[in-house]
């Protein structure tokens, strides 16, 4: 009788291509004398694996300390990589906590179209429901009719109420009504979908500012979270999106999706290293339970190829 894979097994499979890429980039560098030239090659290999320049520099520094001029096997190098990656990820691996009082806790979810934003909202709702929180969705992305329909479909699958409006309608008005309903019905968490277009940053900023003003009138502490959804398959472009959205939208945390569809999962480390924003969860797979908070040590060892798929 077949059983569903564990989260650890999903991580192993999801990061397989990322791990293979890093191991491949380091191939042949182990077992050699750790000269300046070798260390330079190792640092370049780690940057090529999307781990970011700071983490690569830390690994190089660690390897140079005390081992310079000595032989070091490739596994030993990967163990140092795992330790340095863990230091970076441990600072940001922060599950989303529901602490708002009075309720609801309002979570604005932002991200470019195609990043997996809508499905991430559904998975996040499911994750919170597993923790016995009451969840409601608000279809604040009125720019696309498809976005409203998709979110409504997901709300039905997850089994949560949703507040919607017309295509082209006022997102702030929808958010206002959603907060009113959530407050009246005792909902713990309101997750708000927002427009994903970046072509006109001023327009997007104005829209988000209006939503913030409406929320502020209802509860000065809201929105409590502004979560940016990132598609790991875009690699370094994901970092560019953080750069833009953190200024435009006041991002408070990240969710990284589609890590199982790319060899560029190292961008998770680069994002943590460069911005230090909390990373609330990572997405591995298409299933409803395939979005989870992560353990920094576990993910670091898998990325570094210390724990491999058998």
Automatic annotation (TrEMBL):
The gene is ftsY. GO terms for cellular component: cytoplasm; plasma membrane. It is a peripheral membrane protein. The keyword Cell membrane applies. GO terms for molecular function: GTP binding; GTPase activity; signal recognition particle binding. It is found in: Cell inner membrane; Cell membrane; Cytoplasm. Keywords: Cell membrane, Cytoplasm, GTP-binding, Hydrolase, Membrane, Nucleotide-binding, Receptor. Its EC number is 3.6.5.4. Part of the signal recognition particle protein translocation system, which is composed of SRP and FtsY. SRP is a ribonucleoprotein composed of Ffh and a 4.5S RNA molecule. GTP binds at residues 111-118, 193-197, 257-260. It comes from the Bacteria. GO terms for biological process: SRP-dependent cotranslational protein targeting to membrane. Belongs to the GTP-binding SRP family. FtsY subfamily. It catalyses: GTP + H2O = GDP + phosphate + H(+). Signal peptide: none annotated. Residues 103-310 form the AAA+ ATPase domain. Residues 104-305 form the SRP54-type proteins GTP-binding domain. It holds the Pfam family SRP54_N. This is Signal recognition particle receptor FtsY. Residues 11-89 form the Signal recognition particle SRP54 helical bundle domain. Involved in targeting and insertion of nascent membrane proteins into the cytoplasmic membrane. Acts as a receptor for the complex formed by the signal recognition particle (SRP) and the ribosome-nascent chain (RNC). Interaction with SRP-RNC leads to the transfer of the RNC complex to the Sec translocase for insertion into the membrane, the hydrolysis of GTP by both Ffh and FtsY, and the dissociation of the SRP-FtsY complex into the individual components.
């Amino acid at each position: 009788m077949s059983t569903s894979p564990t989260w650890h097994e999903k991580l192993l499979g999801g990061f397989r291509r990322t791990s293979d890429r890093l191991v491949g980039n380091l191939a042949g560098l182990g077992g050699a004398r750790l000269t300046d030239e070798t260390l330079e090659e190792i640092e370049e290999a780690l940057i090529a694996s999307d781990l970011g320049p700071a983490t690569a520099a830390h690994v190089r520094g660690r390897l140079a300390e005390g081992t310079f001029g000595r032989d070091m096997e490739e596994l030993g190098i990967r163990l140092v990589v795992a330790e340095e990656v863990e230091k970076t990820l441990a600072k940001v691996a922060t599950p989303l906590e529901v602490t708002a009082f009075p309720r609801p806790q309002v979570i604005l979810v932002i991200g470019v179209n195609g990043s997996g934003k809508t499905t991430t909202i559904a998975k996040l709702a499911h994750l919170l429901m597993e923790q016995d929180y009451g969840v409601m969705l608000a279809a604040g992305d009125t720019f696309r009719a498809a976005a409203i329909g998709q979110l409504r479909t997901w709300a039905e699958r997850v089994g949560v109420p949703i507040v919607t409006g017309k295509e082209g309608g006022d997102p702030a008005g929808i958010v206002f009504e959603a907060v009113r309903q959530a407050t009246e019905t005792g909902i713990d968490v309101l997750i708000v979908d927002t427009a994903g277009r970046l072509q006109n940053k001023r327009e997007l900023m104005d829209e988000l500012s209006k939503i913030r003003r409406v929320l502020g009138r209802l509860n000065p502490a809201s929105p409590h979270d502004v979560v940016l959804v990132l598609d790991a398959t875009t690699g370094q472009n994901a970092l560019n999106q953080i750069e833009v959205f953190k200024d435009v939208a006041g991002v408070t945390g990240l969710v990284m999706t589609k890590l199982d569809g790319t060899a560029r999962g190292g961008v998770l480390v680069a994002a943590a290293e460069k911005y230090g924003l909390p990373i609330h969860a990572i997405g591995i797979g298409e299933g409803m339970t395939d979005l989870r908070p992560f353990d920094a040590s576990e993910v670091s060892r898998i990325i570094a190829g210390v724990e491999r798929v058998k």
